[in-house]
Amino acid sequence: MSKLYAGLSALVLAAIIGGTALYTTLQRPDDCGGNSVAGGSAAIGGPFELVAPDGSIVGETDVIDRPALVYFGYTFCPDVCPFDVARNVLAVDLLDEQGIDVRPVFISIDPERDTPEVMAKYAQDMHPKMMALTGSAEQVKSAAQAYKVYYAKGSGEGEFYLMDHSTFTYLMLPETGLATYFGRDATPEDIAQQTACHVGG
């Protein structure tokens, strides 16, 4: 019996050490003070096709033709998305002051309600540079999978449901892909500083 407990203890300890190592790898700071990703920049991002507000189909090379801050959310979101998007566009304004052109990108994970018309109004309200994209359920799923984004329909009835989703902002560069990512604790100044470092580097 003691051998069984010893074996189980060893397995638990190994799992804790492995989990800690994985967390440390995911959180490892990059040269600009941000986060790097296990597996390298190719682990997040990739080809997608989505629908722009004018109804045209755009791919990743159309969207990420300059440094871009990519965020997945939905326009009906009552709190998290508006805060994160407002923070991202403040960072874009700080970068504009430094002469650095960065595009804020908002990709809907709620295509049922976020039609191209809704996305056009959202982009207009949020920032002149914003590219707000939606698509079919399949197109959105494919883009979310490329960025390792979690989302699912949450609570609520009828049209008044919420969406559960991850809330990272990804700094994508045209030639190299993912440079770093930002969690909810990042400030506009943090994002601007790290983005300037990556673009300058």
What does this protein structure show overall?
- The protein is an alpha/beta fold.
- It has two domains: 1-28; 31-200, Glutaredoxin, CATH 3.40.30.
- 41% of the residues lie in helices and 19% in strands.
- The protein contains six helices and nine strands; from the N terminus they run H-E-E-H-E-H-E-H-E-H-E-E-E-E-H.
- The chain has helices at 2-27, 60-63, 80-97, 116-126, 137-146, 188-200; strands at 49-51, 57-59, 68-73, 103-108, 131-133, 151-153, 163-165, 169-173, 177-182.
- Strands 5-4-3-8-9 form a five-stranded mixed beta sheet. Strands 1-2 form a two-stranded antiparallel ribbon.
- The chain is globular, with a radius of gyration of 19 Å.
